[in-house]
Amino acid sequence: MKYFAVRGAISLSENTKEEILSKTKRLLEQIIQKNRLEYQDIVSIIFTATRDVDAAYPAVSARELGMTSIPLICCQEMYVENSLPLCIRVLMHVQLEEERELQHVYLGKAVMLRPDLARITIAIDGPAGAGKSTIAKLLAERLGILYLDTGAMYRAIGLKVLENGKDPSNPQDVVPLLPDTDVSVRLEKEGQKIFLDGREVTGEIRTQEVSYAASCVGTIPEVRHKLVELQREIAKKVSLVMDGRDIGTYVMPDATLKIFLTATPEERAKRRWRELKEKGINVDYNTILEEIVQRDANDSNRRFAPLRKAEDAVLIDTTNKSVTQVLEEIESMLNS
Ligand code: DC
Question: How far, in Å, CA of 284 to CA of 129, rounded?
């Protein structure tokens, strides 16, 4: 016999008996299923709970699953400042006939405990002005993971085309520029920096002209291939929130969680208008509305990887919701 140990953890949304028992049950079931274990393989299980979890013993759920002859014990996890609250951890000892690579299981917000073992990827798609970047940025901050704004990459290419005096809606103008175009991002805790041919363009890409150019170059398959490759490469290595138009459908079809954010065109135009006004830029509301409708058409009607809700994405209409409400809704999904 060979002896092994498997780790796992899960976060709770509240300290109630039902939540503790159902979440612990889910964690145990996943550890067993992912590692193809039988009850007779399990030698013992240690459960720990953070000090804010005291409505029930997690081990009760193991008994309810029928693990009646396995030695179990529950302890309190030591408290460390700013650590993940409402969390149940498991250490399971197993004995197996053969050598086998075992998978540790981290669920809900507990994935943050071991980003090296459990990567979390969140895809946020939706039309312009639906609140994607605001929500994605804050969500990443709250979860302690990185944020990748893919729109910025399309904007960088849009900027390159404009700087070369070319037409962003003409593939014959855009495609020949691509081999000599280098787009790179630096993801930092404070935010994302974007570079075009080695020069930082983080601020420069935020103009109306570049927005429109980005939406045009985004319809060109060669542009998408180049950027999607880069996006997938980044997503392979880190836990992140990525926002765009085709993240859940095409870039990260296996994302841990997929959200499709939307709002009426009028509401989105109102938000953009307010944003520009705050920056001291006066633009006619109807012009913005027209641009939004035009960008929606560009993004949704293109042949290659159009803006579309992934079947398994959760739709959130942000029209009458505050940022906090949307964030809480998403966080509760991560915890469910
Ligand atoms: O999200 P944004 O406004 O910064 O995006 C700018 C444009 O880039 C948008 O109109 C469509 C395009 N885009 C895309 O086609 N695919 C993405 N994943 C992100 C943006």
Answer: 16
**Which letter does DSSP use for residue 174 in this model?**
H
Within 10 A of 286 (CB to CB), how many other CB atoms are there? 10
DSSP state of 249: I
Q: Which of 132, 125, 185 is nearest to 155 (CA)?
A: 185
pLDDT > 70? residue 307: yes
Q: Among residues 156, 149, 100, 142, which one has the least CA distance to residue 123?
A: 149
**Closest Cα to atom 2 of ligand 1:** 151
Domain boundaries, given as residue ranges, for the chain: 2-107, 119-145+239-336, 151-237
pTM: 0.74
268 CB near ligand 1 (under 6 Å)? no
CATH number assigned to the domain with residue range 119-145+239-336, chosen from the 4 options 3.30.70.2740, 3.30.420.40, 3.40.50.300, 3.40.50.1000: 3.40.50.300
pLDDT of 133 above 80? yes
303: tokens are 């042949």
Q: What is the separation of C-alpha 104 from the centre of its chain, rounded to a whole number of angstroms?
A: 21
Determine the topology of domain 151-237 in CATH.
Rossmann fold (3.40.50)
- Which one is catalytic: 100, 114, 119, 308? 114
